[in-house]
Write a structure and sequence with these properties.
Length: about 350
């Protein structure tokens, strides 16, 4: 796996999964059977911590890859097992005992984008919570302002949670073609999601006119009234310093997001990742080219971007009305030419 260029964390996770499967089957690899896979995956899908279909598919792929390795004649493990144990390992993962890959199940059915009204309610609740804690003289107002700023940056650039948490303040830079955005015309995402365990990728996300308000948000956060008030701000370049460590983690953002969502009275199906869904949806509703949106969010395939899209009913109605109007104009022009 190292020879394939895969990342160490991915390799460790894969080895851990194979060891877990071996413990569950209580058999060595040369004695594995398809029924062991059936039972393992079935147990993963039941209980209070049932995994998603995508996780189940990934688990099956890891076991399949290991079986390909130990059964490949070029590595000699089959011959060794036959000589030492009078048995040989076989492939036990097949199409019929693992989840089929369908793009429709890549996103849970309950997950959706925020509506514009829900977004306004969420961000207003964030700001009100900061003001309330500041008025009480509580020290919590500063971490809450940090998290409120982080949620706005997450939405304005369509970031994943890890991409957001790993940002440094020097990752922002100007867009030479749009001077009005000053030093925040683009952001370099250095820890974007990698492909098949190959480690993080890089991408550049441009500030777009629909979210140009984030420029003022970032300028305020990186002023003496914002980030610099943390005692740990000078210990690292992280955009999100914490009270005691160098940087704030994803779990902290998740906790604050849940708190704000409950205070705002928003549905529980709205997760922090839904801010990224909203970014995609609202750019498409604004008329941006789907390819541009795909590159902004770092999707390898346009079908993945399509899964994130949940355009509003109002947008659909406007589209229908526009198409009807175009048809009427075209028909009138055709009739006029016939009369001429």
């Amino acid at each position: 796996m190292l020879a394939r260029g895969l990342g160490v964390p991915f390799i460790q996770s894969s080895c851990s999964l194979v060891s877990r499967f071996q413990e569950h089957s209580n058999e060595y690899p040369w004695a594995w059977q398809p029924i062991h896979v059936d039972e393992f995956l079935a147990d993963r899908r039941t209980g209070p911590k049932a995994v998603s279909v995508s996780t189940l598919r990934a688990n099956a792929g890891t076991i399949r890859a290991f079986c390909y390795y130990v059964t490949d004649e070029r590595y000699g493990w089959a011959a060794f097992c036959s000589k030492a144990f009078n048995d040989v390992p076989t492939q036990v993962v097949f199409e019929w005992n693992t989840p089929r890959h369908k793009t429709d199940d890549a996103v849970p059915s309950g997950r959706r984008s925020f509506t514009q009204a829900e977004l306004q309610t969420f961000f207003d609740t964030c700001d009100d919570l900061v003001d309330r804690e500041f008025a009480k003289g509580s020290k919590r107002w500063l971490p809450l302002m940090r998290d409120s700023t982080a949620f706005k940056v997450c939405y304005a650039f369509g970031l994943r949670r890890r991409e957001l948490a790993m940002l440094d303040y020097h990752d922002f830079g100007p867009n030479p073609h749009v001077n009005k955005y000053r030093q925040y015309g683009a952001v370099q995402v250095r820890y974007a999601k990698g492909m098949a365990g190959s480690g993080p990728r890089r991408r550049t996300v441009l500030t777009v006119p629909e979210f140009e308000w984030v420029v003022d948000v970032l300028e305020h956060w990186l002023s003496p009234q914002g980030r610099e008030q943390f005692a740990t701000a000078d210990r690292s370049a992280s955009l999100w310093p914490s009270e005691r460590a160098g940087a704030t983690g994803i779990r902290n953002f998740n906790r604050t997001f849940t708190t704000v969502r409950e205070l705002a009275g928003l549905p529980t199906e709205l997760k922090m990742h839904c801010l990224r869904h909203s970014y995609v949806t609202h750019l498409l509703e604004a008329g941006y080219d789907p390819m541009f949106v795909q590159q902004q969010v770092g999707h390898a395939y346009s079908s993945t971007t399509a899964l994130y899209t949940s355009v509003s009913a109002d947008f659909k109605q406007k589209t229908i009305q526009r198409m009807i109007q175009q048809r009427i104009v075209t028909r009138d022009e055709t009739d006029a030419r016939k009369d001429t």
